[in-house]
Amino acid sequence: MRHGQTLFNVLHKNQGVCDSPLTKQGIADAKKVHKYFHQNNIKFDYAYTSTQERAVDTLELVTDQPYQRLKGLKEWNFGLLEGENRRLNPPFNPKIGSVGDGYVQYGGDSADVVQDRMVRTLTKIMIQKNHHRVLVVGHGASTYLFLKNWVPLDELLNHIEMRNCAILKFSFDDETKKFTYLKTINVN
């Protein structure tokens, strides 16, 4: 799932490796997800989160179970554009579904590097013993790039909305080591 709304989300600022606190709305939405999981008797074998505060805070509002922080789940590094208004971002290329290497010139990561990291990290989580139902709290851009690896670009761009606190449901095939996107649940 994606973390709750933050101050930088409201201000339309980039927050990749930098961080900003959850807003009152972000906290309320995370509590709605907690209630959704409880009402639907959804329990997890394991829980993981990015090391970044906004994701950790969201996970702690969503569940009280033990969890592990993983650097591999961190958000995209936007380099010198961290904390800057999103209007300064490199142009989005709809043909490739991202800005590609646009942040590299500012000292950030390429889309391919983030996508590879996310796929590797989430696969490593799922191949562990007894990891049948897993909660992972992460970030918008890095999760989008993970989705981009498994979902056709047209479907991703035109049919998947990932708001703050969105729950993205996947299945995982142990034999092929492939994820299948099932649906997005927005409780806010």
UniProtKB/TrEMBL annotation:
Gene3D superfamilies: Phosphoglycerate mutase-like. It comes from the Bacteria. InterPro entries: His_Pase_superF_clade-1 (IPR013078), His_PPase_superfam (IPR029033), PGM_Phosphatase (IPR050275). PANTHER family: BROAD-SPECIFICITY PHOSPHATASE YOR283W-RELATED, HISTIDINE PHOSPHATASE FAMILY PROTEIN. This is Pgm5 protein. It comes from Companilactobacillus futsaii JCM 17355.
